[in-house]
Amino acid sequence: MSVNLTATFFSTLAQAGESWSMVDLFQKGGSLMWALLVLSVVAVMVMFVCLWTTRGGAILPQRMVMDVESYLRRKDYVGLLNLCEKDDSCFGRTVHVIILFMQRNPRATIEEVREVAEAEATRQSNILSRQISWLADIGGLAPMIGLLGTVWGMMQTFKEMADGNFEGVKQMQMASGIYEAMITTAGGLVLAIPSMFAYVFFRNRIQKHVTNMEVAVTHILSFIAMQMDREQRLGKSMHRSASGEKLYDEED
Fold first, then answer.
1. What is the tens place of the pLDDT at every residue in 226-241?
2. DSSP per-residue codes, 19-59
3. Which domain range does residue 106 map to?
4. Nearest CA among 131, 145, 128 for reference residue 192
5. Beta carbons within 8 Å of 151's beta carbon, 6+ residues apart
6. What's this model's pTM, rounded to 2 decimal places?
7. Number of structural domains, the chain?
8. Is residue 249 part of a domain?
9. CA-CA distance, 56 to 130, in Å (whole number)?
10. Is residue 248 part of a domain?
11. Is the Cβ–Cβ distance between 251 and 100 less than 8 Å?
């Protein structure tokens, strides 16, 4: 009996394989295929969004780095703020926060400015990571939904076996039920594998661009530190000169 059952199962799979199509598989997969379809649409949308938001120009425009240094050399902080407001990159938003903090806190030290810069750069990195985390979530959720559909289909198939005998048409129905139940698992894996590949790709892409952005921000902070140190030394020199002139006047 078991030999006949196995032969019937593979025979049914072979006959079904001749007429498989995406529409047929979707219809035979059950209601959970709709959930996988929705996740597929979401995954494609997230991939397109990540392609746009994780490109080099959206994180660290090379031209922007040179422009920021040029504005800092001229100490044109108002113009730099306007430039950063027009630039929607992660680097531009980070520099905008730095300059805004310096304007609101003119007596801030370079350590305080560096803390603000690190906090904002981390926030920008987390925003990008949250975007691609959708792909990881879909990659983990899709196989579970597919497995649920398979288990549910197997439960129905074995219930039919328990309600009838194993002869003739019942064997064909059981074989058909088993392969239809496994369609959801296959569908979940077909969705999960590309989603995880996309997640790994975008994760590495973000790490590369964020590392370059951190280097650029460090360069800008070093330039700001040099300006602060120069201004402090100039201020001390002017103070000493003023003190000397005052003492000279008193002696006269």
1. 888 777 676 555 545 5
2. T--HHHHHHHT-THHHHHHHHHHHHHHHHHHHHHHTSHHHH
3. 2-242
4. 145
5. 181
6. 0.76
7. 1
8. no
9. 18
10. no
11. no
